[in-house]
């Protein structure tokens, strides 16, 4: 009788019900933890930065409308101007204190003074046009210097203002006088 039991245990090819239940529970826990963390990451909207300025505005449905995005007081508060209405931008902001440049008539980058809006200093004015093009500019903050093309390209992080100026001049023959494409 001992030999029969020994053969039965040695030749066993299946798991017990308890072992299967434990494996299923462990897989379910791992799946639940991974899925929950992925959902949490997707829900958190990205803060607006120079690199995603245009794409974030286009994602908000401004792709077929003339609109302007402007920020006040060292880019702490921003607004959208569209159809002669101004609404506060409610997304997260991570623009920082900006210095914005455009190309002057002499072929050199010049710092832009946007003036004031309701007695607040304007630090950024970014226009989107009906065809999806936008303002062309060079923006500098503590994270770096960025060239934002007017046409449909993506922002380019450059090593210096001079490199951004070179990028701008390469595309100058495609642009109008103000550096904006309509």
Taking all Cα atoms into account, the compactness measure Rg is 28 Å
Strand order of the largest sheet: 3-2-1-7-6
Q: What percent strand?
A: 25-35%
> How many runs of DSSP E, i.e. beta strands?
10
Largest sheet at a glance? 5 strands, antiparallel
Q: Poorly predicted ranges (pLDDT <50, ≥5 residues)?
A: none
| Element order: H for helix, E for strand | HHHEEEEEEEEEEH
Overall pLDDT, averaged? 81
Q: Which percent bin holds the helix content?
A: 25-40%
Which structural category fits the helices and strands? alpha+beta
Individual helix count:
4
Shape descriptor? elongated
Number of domains: 2
SSE order and pairing:
Elements lengths: L1 H9 L6 H27 L9 H10 L4 E6 L4 E6 L2 E4 L10 E5 L5 E3 L4 E2 L2 E9 L8 E5 L2 E5 L7 E3 L2 H10 L12
Antiparallel strand pairs: 1-2, 1-7, 2-3, 4-5, 4-8, 6-7, 8-9, 9-10
Q: How would you describe the overall organization of this protein?
A:
The chain is of the alpha+beta class and 182 residues long. The chain folds into two domains: 15-44; 53-174, no CATH class. Helices cover 31% and strands 26% of the residues. It has helices at 2-10, 17-43, 53-62, 161-170, and strands at 67-72, 77-82, 85-88, 99-103, 109-111, 116-117, 120-128, 137-141, 144-148, 156-158. β9 (144-148) and β10 form a beta hairpin. The longest helix is centred in the first third of the chain and has 27 residues, at 17-43. The termini are far apart. The model has no long low-confidence stretch (mean pLDDT 81).
């Amino acid at each position: 009788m001992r030999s029969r039991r020994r053969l039965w245990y040695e030749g066993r090819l299946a798991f017990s019900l308890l072992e299967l239940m434990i494996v299923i529970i462990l897989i379910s826990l791992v799946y639940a933890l991974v899925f929950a963390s992925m959902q949490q990451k997707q829900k958190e909207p990205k803060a607006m930065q120079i690199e995603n300025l245009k794409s974030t505005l286009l994602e908000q449905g401004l792709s077929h409308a003339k609109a302007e995005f402007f920020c006040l007081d060292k880019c702490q508060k921003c607004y959208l101007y569209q159809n002669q209405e101004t609404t506060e931008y409610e997304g997260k902001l991570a623009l920082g204190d900006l210095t914005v440049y455009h190309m002057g008539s002499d072929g050199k980058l010049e710092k832009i003074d946007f003036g004031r809006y309701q007695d607040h200093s304007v630090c950024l004015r970014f226009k989107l046009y009906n065809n999806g093009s936008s303002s062309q500019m060079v923006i500098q903050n503590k994270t770096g210097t960025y060239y934002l093309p007017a046409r449909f390209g993506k922002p380019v992080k450059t090593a210096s203002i001079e490199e951004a100026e070179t990028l701008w001049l390469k595309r100058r023959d495609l642009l109008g006088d103000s550096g904006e494409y309509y």
